[in-house]
Amino acid sequence: MARTVEVIFNELLSYKNGMEVLTGLTSVSDYQDFLTQLNSDSKVANWVLELYNQSVVIAGLEQMMDDSIADIQTIIDSKQVGTGDWYRTQVLKFQYTDVLQMIDNVPSYTSIDTTKQIIEFCSVNEESGVVYIKVRRKTGVLLSQSEYNALYSYLEKIKIIGTKIVIYNFEPDDIELYYTILYSGEVGLDNLKVSVDATINNYLSTLAFDTKLKINAITDILQNVTGVVDPQFTGLKAKKNTDLTYTDYGLAYSYDMYAGCGVLKNSSITITYTLG
């Protein structure tokens, strides 16, 4: 990481002050002292000015090196084929109804049309040599059969040879949350219920795509609701798109939406309120 002119100047000055042969030179205490003298009527020794000039040159060179390293890393990252991040980036670039062309031996679109990029969310997981790609549309959730087929064909063209691709595009998961909340009698129960429901629903709406529902996080934010004395988690049930009935997860403190769509569609919140 590039150093500032001040840091370099002070390091060079400290090195100079440690050289016994140069102790007779009129010195400055540090960079700020140098700036003070530079902007005053006092004469600044030529060697101090040269020290400053060298500090500026070194700082500029280090910044150029940082910039070059960043540019090189960007190029390297863009060429990392076959990683999870690479697949995710390519899926988001998918343009429905456009056909990939081989341009300089690289499958590419002849032009970029963001209006045809229909995928908004994507996550990629690999297990036992199979790449599982979970997607969600920009509008709605499910891809049409034609869109699904087009995306699959697109991935077959860009994937690493021998890689098996599986696309997940399901309806969102349904969950049921159960809490017992001890509350203060100083707060009206009707108003408290509104605040608690809004707090939980706000948390659920901000969950990132293909993430985990963390019960501890819900409990923490409920503790900040005025009037809540002690929120007690008592149970969790969930149903994936492929399930006919809810699965009882009991007191599990997280729910992984990996097998579902990566988002929640419906949330049923059952809360028992007890005066604390």
Can you offer a commentary on this structure?
The structure is a single chain. The protein has about 280 residues and is of the alpha+beta class. The protein has three domains: about 5-80, no CATH class; about 85-170, GMP Synthetase, Chain A, domain 3 (2-Layer Sandwich); about 175-275. About 35% of the residues lie in helices and about 25% in strands. It is built from seven helices and eleven strands. The chain has a four-stranded mixed beta sheet, with helices on one face. Strands 3-4-5 form a three-stranded mixed beta sheet, with helices on one face. Strand 4 (about 130-135), helix 5 and strand 5 (about 165-170) form a beta-alpha-beta unit. Helix 1 (about 5-15) packs across helix 3 (about 45-80). The radius of gyration is 30 Å and the shape is flat. The mean pLDDT is about 85.
Q: Unreliable stretches, pLDDT < 50, 5 or more residues?
A: none
Radius of gyration, CA atoms, in whole angstroms: 30 Å
- Strand-residue proportion: 25-35%
Number of domains: 3
Rounded to the nearest angstrom, the distance between the terminal CA atoms is 55 Å
Helical fraction: 25-40%
Task: Note the run of SSEs as H and E.
Answer: HHHHEEEEHEEHEHEEEE
